[in-house]
Specification:
334 residues; alpha/beta; 3-stranded parallel β-sheet; 14 helices
Length: 334
């Protein structure tokens, strides 16, 4: 999630992490079926992954040459990178997690981020052999402190959409000395995504879906535009990104009645904790402008678990399937 929630939005997210990852008001019963989230919040590791063949030397996304000599203690600094490492079958080597790594197998690991800022002291206290990061991971001072301690840092290119799934998996696998497992997982992930895309119902007119980022306790209500990260997922589900289609060129823009009316979404895509933070669907339609949209009138909301929605990793097929099922089942019932 951190990869796509950049700039001003990251500053907001840092202030609202307690709400995003903690308790929030329960949704009141809705008149129509409430939104559901993805199925089991687990990753599916490959079987029989070989031991890493090390050392490896690779070029990271930041242009730096990185040599990995040991991989017994790994610290992935994003939920997506954690998913990749665990799904490659190397989860027993992970000693810490970013706050966005919310899947079950990682849940008991110590968190080494505050908000979404890395705590260099926390990372270094775990004596990692390798730190995996995104180009947006920060603050820069913390990353410099980790490098200064002699810890290799592999920076992976950010996830821009579905096309990034395979390259990111292979980049991590190559650095960890398991290229064959990376090839296998990349192919598995891409095949599963392709299978879901084939199941998307055909329609004469594509539904319009708006991605809303919500943090009710901090009064943060944003609509995604071009570059939000959700466009690729929405399009793969056979829909149109309502924010981008309405002319929103920024990644995120504050919600206004005018912006929502112009976007005219048939459905609203949200993160599950964001939906909870505004009081569920009943609270969502009270946000100015939402009730006047087709999505608000029909209470058509697609809700996906926060750590999975924009991860673009090994679970993306599950996310896409959930979006498709919720979108079209609710649309037909509306």
């Amino acid at each position: 999630m951190r990869t796509r929630l950049t700039g001003a939005l990251l500053a907001v997210l840092a202030l609202t992490t307690a709400t995003a990852c903690g308790g929030s008001p329960a949704a009141e019963p809705a008149k129509k079926p409430a939104a559901t989230t993805t199925a089991a919040n687990r990753v599916e590791p490959l079987r029989n992954t070989p031991a890493p063949s090390l050392p490896t030397t690779v070029f990271a996304a930041d242009g730096k040459k990185v040599t990995v000599e040991k991989a017994g203690r790994l610290v992935p600094l994003s939920g997506s990178l954690s998913e990749i490492v665990f799904t490659l079958g190397l989860g027993d080597r992970v000693v810490a997690r970013d706050i966005s790594a919310t899947f079950e197998q990682a849940a008991k690991l110590p968190v080494v981020t505050r908000g979404h800022d890395v705590s260099a002291e926390s990372v270094l206290s775990l004596k990692p052999d390798l730190v995996l990061a995104e180009t947006t991971t920060g603050p820069e001072e913390a990353m410099d402190q980790i490098r200064a301690a002699g810890i290799p840092v592999l920076v992976v290119a950010p996830a821009q959409g579905l096309d990034a799934v395979g390259p990111r998996i292979r980049a991590v696998a190559d650095a960890l000395g398991v290229p064959s497992a990376g090839k296998q997982l990349a192919e598995r992930s891409q095949d599963r995504i392709a299978a879901v895309r084939k199941e998307v119902p055909s329609q004469s007119e594509k539904p319009r879906v708006a991605f809303l980022y919500l943090r009710g306790s901090a009064s943060v209500y944003l609509i995604g535009g071009k570059g939000s990260g959700a466009g690729s997922l929405i399009e793969a589900a056979g829909a149109l990104d309502a924010g981008a289609e309405s002319g929103l060129t920024k990644d995120f823009t504050a919600i206004t009645s005018e912006a929502l009316v112009k976007a005219a979404p048939d459905a609203i895509l949200v993160m599950s904790k964001g939906l909870e933070s505004v009081g569920g669907i009943d609270g969502l339609v009270k946000i100015p402008g939402v009730a006047e949209t087709p999505a608000g009138m029909n209470r058509l909301v697609v809700s996906i678990e926060d750590g999975a929605l924009l991860s673009y990793g090994p679970r993306t097929d599950q996310v896409l399937r959930s979006v498709v099922e919720q979108l079209y089942e609710k649309r037909d019932a509306a």
